[in-house]
Design brief:
By secondary structure, this protein is of the alpha/beta class. It has helices at 3-7, 24-32, 46-59, 75-84, 101-106, 118-124, 148-158, 172-180, 190-193, 202-210, 233-243, 248-255, 258-265, 288-300, and strands spanning 13-15, 37-40, 64-69, 89-93, 110-115, 132-135, 141-142, 163-166, 185-188, 216-219, 227-230. Strands 1-9-8-6-5-4-3-2 form an eight-stranded parallel β-sheet. A three-stranded antiparallel β-sheet has the order 7-11-10, covered by helices on one side. The model has no long low-confidence stretch (mean pLDDT 95). The protein binds flavin mononucleotide. Residues 16-19, 21, 40, 42, 67, 69, 93, 114, 135, 138-141, 166-169, 187-191, 274-276, 278 line the site of flavin mononucleotide.
Length: 309
């Protein structure tokens, strides 16, 4: 299956939904640059989401979608809104979207749940989904345990729908690797944070450009909500408190509003700078179109093979 045909894109790339980052304007910029833009609904109430969907539609005539966070308290309302607004594509995070799929399919929406395990991918195919996004633990934001390298082929073997790889992809070599693992396309997050069009604070972009390969860490492994972020005072403090088994309420005081402090205020001490392990590969701020062309051209020219002897 050709992902461009399925999504109506020029490149087989999806911009991952990113809470507080992926506004309607950013999703439209991604779609205009040839990939599939997604509005990140995390942290939005239903009316805010509607405003972003309409803003996106006003800014692009290309297909775009919405990433629905299933743990959002207004998820029922938002699920209905997506059908009402005739959004073309929905991706879902943090759970099983099965009960919403029939109404979305009736509205002509293409549905791509994000999964971190093959067993969940297989279960979801029962609902008539259009594909799955297999996201490895290298990713920025909420993560599972499995690496992209181990996860993608196992998801491909488990399902008979197209598989999109996510996590740890920021250049053509990694796109080629994802294709070798069986993916028909890739979802990108971290490398798009340093695009010219990305509406995050300058300090966030600067921190990403400065990062080395080992400069991310995972907070929340002990609380059941692991999140990959750039190492900073807040992240180190959080993990120290986890090791001391402090109550969840204490930990939450640290993280409450922390992504917003990173995205909007650029607070490098107390912000949660969600970022994947590819942060160490990022060298400069570029226009989205340039990033997509480099990724695609890099993929096409990535002909290195291993010697058999
Ligand atoms: C700042 C940031 C916020 C994110 N927020 C979400 C989110 O709200 N929903 C979601 O499904 N994934 C979220 N993700 C994951 C991305 O959609 C994407 O799958 C991931 O970034 C891909 O891996 P990469 O970071 O290695 O490119 C987020 C990632 C980042 C970097």
């Amino acid at each position: 299956m050709n992902l461009n045909t399925l999504l109506g894109t020029e490149f087989p790339f999806i911009q991952g939904g990113m809470a507080n980052v992926a506004t309607g304007a950013f999703a439209a910029a991604v779609s205009n640059a040839g990939a599939l833009g997604l509005i990140g609904s995390g942290g939005m109430d239903t009316e805010t989401l509607r405003t972003h969907i309409r803003a996106c539609r006003a800014l692009t005539d290309k297909p775009f979608g919405v990433n629905l966070m299933l743990m959002n308290p207004c998820v029922e309302e938002q699920a209905k809104l997506l059908a009402e607004e005739e959004v073309q594509v929905v991706t879902t995070g943090a759970g099983n979207p099965g009960k919403y799929v029939p109404a979305w399919k009736e509205a002509g929406i293409k549905v791509f749940p994000v999964v971190g395990a093959a067993v969940l991918a297989r279960r979801l195919t029962r609902y008539g989904i259009d594909g799955v996004i297999a996201e490895g633990t290298e990713s920025g934001g909420h993560v599972g345990e499995m690496t992209t390298m181990a996860l993608v082929p196992q998801v491909c073997d488990a399902v008979d729908v197209p598989v999109i790889a996510a996590g740890g992809i920021a250049d053509g070599r990694q796109v080629a690797a994802a294709a070798c693992l069986g993916a028909v396309g890739v979802q990108l997050g971290t490398c798009l944070l340093v695009s010219e069009e990305c509406p995050i604070h300058e300090n966030y972009k600067r921190a990403l450009l400065k990062a080395a390969d080992t400069d991310t860490m995972v907070t929340g492994r002990t609380t059941g909500a692991p999140v990959r972020v750039l190492k900073n005072r807040m992240a180190r403090e959080y993990v120290r408190m986890e090791k001391e088994h402090l109550p969840l309420a204490e930990l939450e005081k640290l993280t409450l509003g922390s992504l917003r402090r990173a995205v909007f205020d650029g607070d490098t001490d107390t912000g949660s700078f969600m970022a994947g392990q590819v942060a160490g590969q990022l060298r400069e701020i570029k226009p989205l179109r340039h990033i997509f062309e480099e990724l695609y051209n890099g993929y096409c020219t990535c002909g290195k093979g291993m010697a058999a002897e």
